[in-house]
Amino acid sequence: MPTVLPGRALAAAATATAAALLATALGVHTATAAATAAATTAASTAATTDKVLVIGLDGVVLDRVKAAHAPNLNGMMAQGLTARSTLYASPMAATSSGPGWSTIATGVWPDKHGVKDNSFTGKNYGAYPDFLTRIENAKPSLNTYAAADWEPITSTDQNGPIFSAKVDKRLSLKGDRDGYGSEDPKTAAAAAAELRDQNPDAAFVYLGQIDSAGHSYGAASQQYLDAISRVDTLVGQLLTAVAARPTYAQENWKILVTTDHGHTDAGGHGGSTIQERGTFVIAKGAGIPAGSVRSDVKLVDVAATALSHVGVAAGSAIDGIALDAPDDNDAFDTLRPALQGRVDETGIPAGVKGFTHTPPAGWSVDNSRMGAGGVAEWAGWAFATDEFWSQSQRDQWRELNVRSRDVFAVADSDEWDDKSHTGSYDSTLITPAWPVTGGTTRTLTYRTHYRHEAGQTAQVLVSYNGGTPTVVKDYTADAVAKAESLTLQVPAGATDVRVRFRYTGSNNWFWTLDNVHLN
């Protein structure tokens, strides 16, 4: 059984022997299994030099990897972490390669890096550079490497390059012109030689033929599975090259595999279906438990993890969080075991368990002013996942809630109104009573996604020692995927504070909250 990790908590890594046996049992090539064993041994003993490899596979559907003959990728999942996630959709950005690889490389969402489609119009790499460039800027003594056969990633004469000219060494082949079936093996061979024989500290390698198969034949096709199998062999070459390094025993490698977007069964992407928005991160290395599964990882975390692993602090400059960062103690994420399937919604697949009305311990929901009836899932504040909530109705900006993770709170008068009801939507989410000291200043932080329309209200109120709630924030305009920070002046004599989030409306829009903390 996989180890399902709550929040960002990490358990102890598997031993080298267990990893090798597990890899062999899953059919991983002997060289790769041996490399895995050596990797774990090196990381757990005398490793002194931290190095990172990110492998980017274009247009890959995780469930199809699991169905394909892909011993190296499936072996990595058995040996490390598997984390599904979902992307934005328009108008933030299309589910296409330009925004996807820009998000992975920069560690920020499209509203920052500026790339909304494959035209790269509005790119803002100067303010938000790729992670290899950040490494060069912070630690120029480290060696960086990037190889790709989709030209915008590394070629200076294309719409990018996503990875800048500051990267020490770059390989750029022409997959669109010459075919990814022929150029992927060249990319992998060159990158394997670099990884084995040279001294890269941080590397990115891209392979594109799976996406081509998706466009030509669809993700449900045998041809798509065959492309995954071919690319899996190339991934194995890269893993074997790392393990064959002469100095490998003194190195601590973290290896991540990710994708920029998904594909529909019939083929294609760019839209807002959950198939097109589906992405993943697979990772192995010291501190990552074998067979672990997480639901709070995002594509922006790839860059954050790479930077953290080689000792480059990114801080608030990027949206990502390193995989080994401390747990954020988000109360809403504790609700995942309580999530249930749909009740009234018809657009959400029946097997998706993604909502509950039960609040976390210490929290409460006041529905005393709430109308009766309406769509059951959204009758007052609910707690849901992106996969569940965004499928309730596509293309109304629900997909733009990129800065929430895992389970978040939702007030949605638009969806609630889709079934007959009396009265209007009026629900208040209430925090526990948090201890405070009178005369001090505290900071309330949270992630929010709010779409405004006349006739609805969204207010943040605070009350001290059970007193009358006072409004400290009143939303009167859109707040799209935003991190909020409100300063609270604690009055003299106060010993506790409660925060209330009240939303009212009638067939208006919605409000989400996540990671609410008093600091």
The CATH topology of the largest domain corresponds to Alkaline Phosphatase, subunit A
Please identify the structural class as seen in this structure: alpha+beta
CATH architecture classification of the largest domain: 3-Layer(aba) Sandwich
What's the CATH class of the largest domain, please? Answer: Alpha Beta
CATH homologous superfamily designation of the largest domain? Alkaline Phosphatase, subunit A
Quote the beta fraction. Answer: 25-35%
Sequence of strands across the biggest β-sheet = 1-9-3-8-7-2-6-4-5
Summed up, the domain count is: 2
Query: What general outline do the C-alpha atoms trace?
Result: globular
Low-confidence residue ranges: 9-45
Q: State the total count of DSSP E strands.
A: 23
Instruction: State the major sheet.
Output: 9 strands, mixed
The residue-averaged pLDDT reads: 92
Q: Helicity level, as a percent range?
A: 25-40%
Radius of gyration: 24 Å
How far do the termini sit from each other?
37 Å
Number of helical segments with 4 or more residues: 16
How does this model look, in words?
Helix content is 27%, strand content 25%. The chain has two domains: 3-317, 3-Layer(aba) Sandwich (Alkaline Phosphatase, subunit A), CATH 3.40.720.10; 331-518, Jelly Rolls, CATH 2.60.120. It is of the alpha+beta class. Helix 10 packs parallel to helix 12 (222-243). A hairpin with a 5-residue loop joins strand 19 (457-464) and strand 20. Residues 9-45 have low confidence and may be disordered. The strands form four sheets. It has a nine-stranded mixed β-sheet, sandwiched between helices. A six-stranded antiparallel β-sheet has the order 10-13-14-23-18-21. The chain is globular, with a radius of gyration of 24 Å.
